[in-house]
Input
Amino acid sequence: MRKMFITLAATSALALGACQSPQADKVEDQAEAQAEAIDDQADAMPEGPAQDAMENKADVVEEQGEEKANAMDDDGEIAPSETGVGDTQKK
Output
């Protein structure tokens, strides 16, 4: 599910021609790298609640990075708070 959301978000950003400042891109890239490292740790764990918690943590880290980058400069990129979709959004 997470990978599908990432692919959809990336495709949407490309379709919109979103451009962020280099600083916002760096913040988002760092969050994505951190989330990927957490997700890799989760992949190495046995299936179960602990693995699910790690995957959720990776999703939250990535979304928070997107939100922080979006707050830095909102130049067309769509953050989870603007769509209401994502693990950090209230349901």
The two ends are 17 Å apart (CA to CA).
